[in-house]
Design brief:
By secondary structure, the chain is of the alpha+beta class. It contains 11 helices and 10 strands. The protein is globular and about 80 Å long.
């Protein structure tokens, strides 16, 4: 078993880390304070090929693997959690469904612009009354001649204000058992009746664009159906499994940033005549933090490798997302504790990591949902 990164993976890691630390990290505090979306940063990432890492070159991508993509998410999240979230969402949720389920024409029309950074991607799944219970989707799409007419509302949708199209899940009928058939539809954001609002005042990941979508008699051609109309539910479950790997990688990045700051501060801060890093109480905290960050990174890489090998990865993706997100919260909390009173101040940035980390335990399936998925995979 070889734990060493390939030369290509190491090259991507070095490139993305250099970009993130030089272009994103210096702006992270201001982005958090102003809740401004860093469109200029995404323009640069598009030109560098970062937005297309896991997609083939024929579709505008960079031809990298899933581990390379996870590494990129970690490095961007290490610099700024909000920027990392929008990056993960545009690739895993906005672009990946086109790659896995789209026709060649859909890939040409929608995936290529996403992978090459000409626009961002968004995935409209969550609704006011359908959060953890995504199967309770209430948005409906009715076929009227050659068009679907869509009515419904989505909430907490990442990147929609900066996307040319949004993939929207909607009920399109009933199966033989009388259960809802949920399909995915491609909706251009300039379609009449499609309203996008971005009025959320968030606790964390404030650099990320988060939107409410309202669809009132929105009409799209029937060829905008994405994938199998009867397998939309399974398709978005697969999409979420991949997204959980990226949220896990983002969590590792946030946790690593908190650990970096805590270690630096512990070496610099002096009390009782010596740096606090010499005290066993602080050493044990740092040791536990480092251990959990490394374990989280390892399960992220394993889940990413399984996905890349086209092996079952749902259980490992949930394990990665659960463990890494809770690690990010715990490590960030301990980093604040190590900083003492300074950790409570915005100036030292560790409080931002804690605010960013908390969403990792909620988005892409809560920690409770992850435990449920894992238990079911165990045959419970």
């Amino acid at each position: 078993m070889n734990f060493e990164l390939t030369s290509e993976q190491q090259m991507i890691k070095d490139m993305v880390r250099d970009f993130a630390q030089n272009e994103i990290a210096p702006k992270a505090e201001a982005l958090d304070r102003t809740a401004k979306f860093p469109i200029d940063i995404f323009d640069k990432m598009g030109k560098l090929g970062i937005l297309g890492i896991p997609f083939p070159e024929k579709y505008g991508g960079s031809g990298g693997d899933t581990i390379s993509y996870a590494i990129a998410v970690e490095e961007i999240g290490r610099a700024c959690g909000g920027t990392g979230l929008s990056y993960a969402a545009t690739v895993s949720l906005g672009a990946s469904p086109f790659y896995y389920f789209g026709t060649e024409k859909q890939k040409e029309n929608y995936l290529i612009p996403l992978a090459s950074g000409k626009t961002l991607g968004a995935f409209g799944l969550t609704e006011p009354n359908a959060g953890s219970d995504a199967g309770g989707t209430e948005t409906k799409a009715v076929l009227d001649g050659d068009e679907y007419v869509i009515n419904g509302e989505k909430c907490w949708i990442t990147n929609a204000s900066y996307s040319n199209t949004v993939i929207v899940t909607a009920v399109t009928g009933k199966d033989v058992r009388g259960k809802n058939i949920i399909s995915a539809l491609i909706v251009p954001t300039n379609t009449p009746g499609f309203t996008i609002n971005s009025n959320y005042d968030k606790m964390g990941v404030r650099a990320s664009n988060t939107c409410e979508l309202v669809l009132e008699n929105v009409r799209v051609p029937k060829e905008n159906l994405l994938g199998d109309p009867h397998k939309g539910f399974k398709q978005f479950l697969y999409t979420l499994d991949g997204g959980r790997i990226s949220i896990a990688a983002l969590s590792v990045g946030i946790a690593q940033a908190a650990l970096d700051k805590a270690l630096h501060y512990a070496k610099e801060r002096k009390q009782f005549g010596q740096s606090i890093s010499k005290f066993q109480a602080i050493q044990f905290k740092l040791a536990d933090m480092a251990m959990h960050v490394e374990l989280a990174r390892n399960i992220v890489y394993k889940a990413a490798w399984l996905k890349e090998q086209k092996r079952p990865f749902s259980k490992e993706a949930s394990m990665a997302k659960l463990f890494a997100s809770e690690t990010a919260t715990n490590v960030s909390n301990q980093a604040i504790q190590i900083h003492g009173g300074y950790g409570y101040m915005r100036e030292y940035a560790v409080e931002r990591h804690l605010r960013d980390a908390k969403l990792m335990e909620i988005g892409e399936g809560t920690s409770e949902i992850q435990r449920l998925v894992i238990a079911r995979q165990l045959g419970c």
